[in-house]
Amino acid sequence: MEQMIDSGVLSAENDKRAKDLEADYAALGEKLARNGVNIDDVTAKVAAYGVAVPSWGVGTGGTRFARFPGSGEPRHIFDKLEDCAVIQQLTRATPTVSLHIPWDKVDDLTELKERGTALGLGFDAMNSNTFQDQDGQDHSYKYGSLSHTDAATRQQAIDHNIECIEIGKALGSKALTVWIGDGSNFPGQSHFTKQFERYLDAMKSIYAALPDDWRIFSEHKIFEPAFYSTVVQDWGTNYLIAKELGPKAFCLVDLGHHAPNVNIEMIVARLIQFGKLGGFHFNDSKYGDDDLDTGSIDPFRLFLVFNELVDAEGAENFNPAHMLDQSHNVTDPIESLMRSAVEVTRAYAQALLVDRAALSAYQQENDPMMASETLKDAFRTDVGPILAMARKNAGGAVAPIAAYRAAGYRRKVSGERPAVSGAGGGIV
Amino acid sequence: MEQMIDSGVLSAENDKRAKDLEADYAALGEKLARNGVNIDDVTAKVAAYGVAVPSWGVGTGGTRFARFPGSGEPRHIFDKLEDCAVIQQLTRATPTVSLHIPWDKVDDLTELKERGTALGLGFDAMNSNTFQDQDGQDHSYKYGSLSHTDAATRQQAIDHNIECIEIGKALGSKALTVWIGDGSNFPGQSHFTKQFERYLDAMKSIYAALPDDWRIFSEHKIFEPAFYSTVVQDWGTNYLIAKELGPKAFCLVDLGHHAPNVNIEMIVARLIQFGKLGGFHFNDSKYGDDDLDTGSIDPFRLFLVFNELVDAEGAENFNPAHMLDQSHNVTDPIESLMRSAVEVTRAYAQALLVDRAALSAYQQENDPMMASETLKDAFRTDVGPILAMARKNAGGAVAPIAAYRAAGYRRKVSGERPAVSGAGGGIV
Amino acid sequence: MEQMIDSGVLSAENDKRAKDLEADYAALGEKLARNGVNIDDVTAKVAAYGVAVPSWGVGTGGTRFARFPGSGEPRHIFDKLEDCAVIQQLTRATPTVSLHIPWDKVDDLTELKERGTALGLGFDAMNSNTFQDQDGQDHSYKYGSLSHTDAATRQQAIDHNIECIEIGKALGSKALTVWIGDGSNFPGQSHFTKQFERYLDAMKSIYAALPDDWRIFSEHKIFEPAFYSTVVQDWGTNYLIAKELGPKAFCLVDLGHHAPNVNIEMIVARLIQFGKLGGFHFNDSKYGDDDLDTGSIDPFRLFLVFNELVDAEGAENFNPAHMLDQSHNVTDPIESLMRSAVEVTRAYAQALLVDRAALSAYQQENDPMMASETLKDAFRTDVGPILAMARKNAGGAVAPIAAYRAAGYRRKVSGERPAVSGAGGGIV
Amino acid sequence: MEQMIDSGVLSAENDKRAKDLEADYAALGEKLARNGVNIDDVTAKVAAYGVAVPSWGVGTGGTRFARFPGSGEPRHIFDKLEDCAVIQQLTRATPTVSLHIPWDKVDDLTELKERGTALGLGFDAMNSNTFQDQDGQDHSYKYGSLSHTDAATRQQAIDHNIECIEIGKALGSKALTVWIGDGSNFPGQSHFTKQFERYLDAMKSIYAALPDDWRIFSEHKIFEPAFYSTVVQDWGTNYLIAKELGPKAFCLVDLGHHAPNVNIEMIVARLIQFGKLGGFHFNDSKYGDDDLDTGSIDPFRLFLVFNELVDAEGAENFNPAHMLDQSHNVTDPIESLMRSAVEVTRAYAQALLVDRAALSAYQQENDPMMASETLKDAFRTDVGPILAMARKNAGGAVAPIAAYRAAGYRRKVSGERPAVSGAGGGIV
């Protein structure tokens, strides 16, 4: 496999940290053993965990006010794949990439697939784009795509989604994620029910083109880019969609797409209970769809989501897709994605440590104090040594960001990839 | 029919305003006629509209910090009925009362029903109470009722709901509203899925006891009295309940029970579309479940809800229940309920004025400017003369609050009903 | 004065509506007279009211996801001025334009000023831009501008603001509005106190360059483009700034820049009380800084703001600047600005109708029912005839949007101004 | 000193955990030493930390819907002091109690003070109560207290606050906390400015009675019990109050009293910067003023607050008061207060571990990745062994809740204190 980061640099970085890691791992192992937990079992589970990286995430993001590009920005999907390979090489937690069409469109899909293989990367869910107009497009999405009042516009959006499936089939993907910007900015602009009926009809056409071993994920979002209503505004509507479409349709939960104060882990539990949890777009946020690094704002909330996932492990047909979806406006995107992959894994490891038998008993006995402390005990555990050991064992970095910086990857690609001019964002 | 307010006082009050009302009604009629609207048709529809008054609403409400009772507080359901009769006599928009058990429990249901008839009042949906413990109760609801981990506690709550149905049958009610305080205050306290399964099982037992011509309404609420999670947290869960239970089960929407920023009128549209809108608890709020007078904080939002309702009029099986549900902490409860009944009727009248053919065309053509202005034109119309004329024609008051004050009803009952001591609220 | 809209078309449009307007105005006048209000006095006050139009508002806005340009987009400030002249010609409520530098930078300021004069437009507050990087700029604002850790970057931002003052002086402006995007995306990224100290120091340098007859407005915003913290996050910080700077410094309130549920009219009252209300950026929003048309989401909130303004009229040194600040993503920007100007004027007219003597008495007597109904009575009044009459008397349009469409202005400029390609927004 | 918990039970509990604690403490000490941190220094700082317990917190709380009392509820301040002594004995982090008047009023203040001394408890800030009416009170607070329109009502509230100062002087308290429920439920009910002027005047009268070595804390809150506006709605208004009153006046921050999404740690930083941070009411919340156990919902937010406090340590006149303020509706209040005291201490310990030199450098260099990871590294550290060792060294419990349960304190007092009947909460 092609290595983006020099293995000598990586080894040297790991060697510097090996002794401390051993000591910390041993101390943690001893502590966990007291509770009957074998640390190596946890490490093995963590090592088997993977989260998909979004191809668009390796570019610097922006807001409607501005975008401040970094250096060495990827120019196309092949550059992006190399950046993704760095992330996977160092974290060993991101074995797949999720593509966005037409941004990642190429002439030769075989070449793309082979490049992925060479870099040790598979292809996760495909993402369609009907929230932007592309040059030469017949119909504009200004007033909607799959829910547009005009049948030809809807058909164009349907065709695009089917094209995404076709591309995905060639690449080995098994899922299509559909997020639309459709909605309205003013009361009265759209008829809620007719609009949703049009959306459902269009989605049924896409669903009909879905291979038997694929899944389709619909994604809800309360606002932005539409500011009065969105067609798929919350998990309630999202559930109705998945139910209407059929057994291959599931709901995708983006952590930043909810109203303030909403209990997201409970939504996750409900979707699991009713067999419709499709997966996640992980990120963190304080205000809206801030798309910040996962776990950077409210790490306990992330843990509570994973607590539901671990609790449901082993349930029939329970197989949610895990993806990152972030906008990296002020950091090196590779660094942000590495840390986010680590944070997701951290939450998973912490959730694995929850004493579920004890928790269940406290819940049954109505002992909220001990029930909540049981969760907190797991959350408070510094599982860092487990994560680092899992990475190290798999050939990754004990300290991914330090290793990345030591290797000088960003400096290297900055020399190879021409600087992007400081293009402004959307609009004020 | 027994009149709570002296008809002489009422007539005198109306007479003072008759000439102005005629002039305003004529001017408005002329204006509406230009748009092809016959004002008398609107007035007739308004006159046929009714919203139920909550029996508990005629007492002064409070917060966990304190309750500041007013004078002449009703001592029992018979006093409450008289207060409700005042509201109906003056507004002619509140022909029914919604009872809460055990607060309104009486020994002789026939006497209660007859008293209602004598006062011109019918009985709307019954409300059960499993969010408080009653003296002598076997099992406490401290840790839940219909979703409690203990089967005996759940059965007690089921039995209570069935008792409410029995009482309602004797009174002519046709619906049961179930709102529970069940939830949790700390992550881990409750297992979301098991808790919801227990709730669904318990609701199925209640549903089984529901007469064929009854409906059962479940009510969602994001928080309070539980502060981390609630079992029926939003319309998504509420829909799942109604779907699981069967064709007599519907969702109740309380306007104050949602997360910040949520588009409530869209939830209304979704529930209509999927045949599960049961009805409303009308009130207004700025922060949480503030239970303020309907339309007092965001009258345009109330209008947008009614816009959906008028749009759906005539649809099959579309028959939502309209109820007020407010807490009157600083006003005379009778005055607040009268003004709220008027505000609900105002929103209905405004929604009737929406030019739906034009609106539909603007929506189809993606003309958000004219579509939103079409709604706004209706909202901006001062329909006061229509409401006043409808009341006057039906024997009510042109100006309900002025007539009420002129009649001195509060002063009168203050003399008859002993003062309640300044009992403190729940707790800090 | 140069007229953008053919006076013949305008007259014809007005003539069609003249008779109805007379009737409606007369009916409303009669109604108001009963309460001792002379409608012509109100109309005169309304006619004297003006709100500034933002030069950037006449272009189609967008989000970070996409921008969907309309036809006939203005290419530069001279095109923008013509669009603004249309708005002023038809509404007679927008006599001034607020410029944004460097977007509106020109070589010849005299030419610009004269063009404004020819079109009947004056120049309102100047707006600086340190939230975007410009080509050839020495220092990037990626990590801040006036609060940047680097002194040279701060100086660059200071110099730019001083340049804006210089441009404004040439144009007759009397105020500088400073909104920055400075903040942080992650806990720890910035030291709150040091960052704010740097900001204050930089603002003091700008303040020192402010002419004696100018004002400087600082604008607070809770989030976006920064998503964890912003330097000027709320009115509390904004007040501290104005206080630190001195008597020419004031706070600007953008209606969409607050946390959910916040009582904005109360903030307005506090700033008035402490002598620091500088003015407004009017718009409406449901979720965040949605920048929707003023009054389109919550018209009662807009009225409550104006209620505070009218209440404070006549107070010493009370002279807030009124400006629109919106993003028109799905409408014709000229139409949105016209309707928004009308809505602001409507709220003003309604606030003028509040019976303040009665209100004050009800407040004193603790009669919340009558106090709140006193406000509502004013809000419910359909003041449309007053607004239309004020426009008509001043040579504007009875129905601005209808007249605008009848005149075919957008079609005309679409032929003259080359189509903008469907450039994408910032980023996903 | 009188011990509420049998020292034999406590020793036995501690002995069971001694060996594991030693091992964990040693392992953590080794890890910290690598970063140049001496664990014993941290432990010493933690041992010196204290947070006040609210006397009202040891009783079971409730909501407006219901209160579900526990067993062994304290009957009066002497019972409460004993419960507080349990908390202090086991956690060694709560050396003082904060009283609420008139709830904790006694005839003999000397007896009360001596009882505190005997139990090892001092008296923290006094709390006045003008949000409830007391039996026999001349004027009702239904429509406000310190801001009431009636001068006699205001004077009554002023006198009560001065009485609280007098009581506090006898007990050795050095601060008065003023939280009022004043506000309004409907637009128009109150004149914002006049209301605030009345409040300021009243506060000045209280301030005039404040001893020279006392501080007065005003507390802001966005809503509840008032639901449209509150007089002291946010930190901006709170700052103005402290500024108007003088150098002994400071702002109190209750973590649950803010609008959704607000950045509380930044408010803390601003108040520190401008010399007006008085102290905290610690608790946690998800929706409103939920008053949940500190750190139970968002532990990272609590850490970020302490990060500001540790950062400011040593600044002139920086001496914020730390108090818990929670409502324990479903847990044993003693257990909740113990765990909350531990959580506050945990956040403090984590904040002490932040590498401030590194953080400062990353901030200066605009390296948000490493800056935020620096904070996270400290937060992720499991400081449990430090906290336990500090408690053990001071004679407290290694595991406070386990020791408390083992000692059977609740069972004991349940036998001594008569059961409280299941009194209902305020109102629906």
UniProtKB/TrEMBL annotation, chains A, B, C, D:
Top EC class for this record: isomerase
Family annotation (InterPro entries): L-rhamnose_isomerase (IPR050337), L_rhamnose_iso (IPR013451), Xyl_isomerase-like_sf (IPR036237), Xyl_isomerase-like_TIM-brl (IPR013022)
Sorted UniProt keywords: Isomerase, Manganese, Metal-binding
Domain of life: Bacteria
Coiled-coil region: none
Domain Xylose isomerase-like TIM barrel: 107-291
Gene Ontology terms for molecular function: L-rhamnose isomerase activity
EC number, as in UniProt: 5.3.1.-, 5.3.1.14
Alphabetical list of PANTHER family matching this protein: L-RHAMNOSE ISOMERASE
Name of the protein in its database record: L-rhamnose isomerase/sugar isomerase
